[in-house]
Specification:
By secondary structure, this protein is mainly beta. Helices cover about 15% and strands about 35% of the residues. The chain is globular, with a radius of gyration of 26 Å.
Amino acid sequence: MAENGNQPRRDFPVILSQRDEWWRMKASFLLTGVVAAWTWSLGAVELFQPDKPNTMAFAPTEARFVRLVIPDSAQSQPCIDELEVYGPEGGRNLALASAGAKATASSCLPGYAIHQIAHLNDGLYGNSHSWIAAGTRNEWAQIELPKMAPVAKVVFSRDREGRYRDRMPAWIEIRVSVDGTSWKTVARGSAFPILPEGLFREEELLRYAFECEDLTWRKFDPSGSLSRVFRQMDEMLDRFSDRGLGVSKELVELAELRRREVALQGLPTAATNRQELLFQARLAKRRLFLREPELAALARILFVKRHPFEPSHNYSVILDATGGPGGGICALEIPHRHGRLDTGQAKVTMLFEAGDGIARNPVASFDATRIYFGYRPSKDDYFHLRVMNADGRGLKQITDGPFHDYFPCPLPDGGLAFISTRCKARFLCWRPQAFVLFRMDADGSNIQPLSHANLSEWTPSVMNDGRIIWMRSEYLDKGADFGHTLWAIRPDGTHPELIFGNNTLNCYANGREAPGSSEILCTLVSHGGDLNGPIALIDVAKGRFNPQAISNITSDVEPHYHMSWARQQCFRDPFPISHDYFLCSHAPFDKFGLYVIDRYGNRELLHLDSEIGSMSPTPLRE
């Protein structure tokens, strides 16, 4: 198994001198074994090559331990045939075992004599003298030098004999330490842009977001990045002008951007300058987008900071989810200045800190004076519902017992719908507890079931007519790919009705009515994993079982099916702001942030935390 590598289907140049080559390489790296390294600070593109030495240079640093961290890899467990460390002068490999250095690793694939940790620094190249990790994510290989020394370069390869090109790291970090306990990151490389860490300017964050967006869009829009941005800006200018908004300044700005594009043609520095022009054009489109008057509803946003759950099935999140503790319930305040939202001056307030526990799915009461959310103090505890004032004071737990209670949904009659395991049933596939729709009074009393299903249910919200719409699993006498449909019920538990689904090739989560239309906003999810995917509008006027009623409005993200599910470059938790604009959570790569999108394919970042995901956004307003 480990000995047989995937052979390349085509060759690529050693160096990418044109920025436009980036997507051609990235789209094919799984087939070729070639992975790009994106150096954020320089904006340069290099290659991780399986059959060549890959060099990560950095400022000289005194160290005793040097670690190559591999957060993610392409095509199964990562493989390294030699890990080399050099000082500022170069020339001598400090990592060799023959020189007294010691190799260690996070794990090693068992059962193969040719794949051992000791092969990391034995001085021999090739697959038959290599290390393969046991896992595919968050693995590392380490060299302990015989004594402290200045180090300035790490070199690694997968198979320098050129026989195998699979198992390449897709993302690496070089960390150094003097004692093996405290570590410093000195270099990073990735197949995608790297999210800035710690304190950074908004410009750096926007460059990251725009670059990720560009990479995903290029799969579906071969006309080119600038052409897409110009086209979207043209369409936006037409819509704004038709509504009486003044756009003369933006028309001049767009004309100047197009003039600059023409001027770049044929210049030797066109690739670098074109990339900067793309960034400036994307900024111009963002400034125009944030002028939309309907976005005033986003002045204050309620959301949760938490790590991804990553359950094996979408109905097992309370059983086998791996998401760690931390984060909490937050409010994002975005001022409105100079006629647009000013995200650069936005402020985040922590209303409830999760500590060692996990908070989820916050939602405000209709008058926006109270906030409901699910919380469990540790992974050994149950999720129970809590309520607090909109300023974070007056915290109170309103459910208890040996049950999971979450997905709170305030009702027009003053009650609260929620999802709970109080049905005391098991899901009919695999082994988790089922959880279905309940309701109670606002103080936690008078708990009653609204659903009598014995499967599982999620994401309730209130429709314009006062009914509750929610996702039901109907994984009975049908396949998993079309077993999660949208239903509605009156708050008193009468008249349950199928809204959309049943043998249509998708599963539908987070259903919410879009104002001024017959459409339902939702996430297209799969049977496996968490509730991530593309965002869609379903026009139920076209029929409850009609696949043509579904419009994917984030079309650079495709739906997943069965046990495949999106962990990155995906969307979740949509909330309609108006007929055309929607709040949601989006992972431009692997970290979820808060975005506003529209039905025309535009998206703009509102908030992104480099340390933890930001999810479940709703406007914090009456």
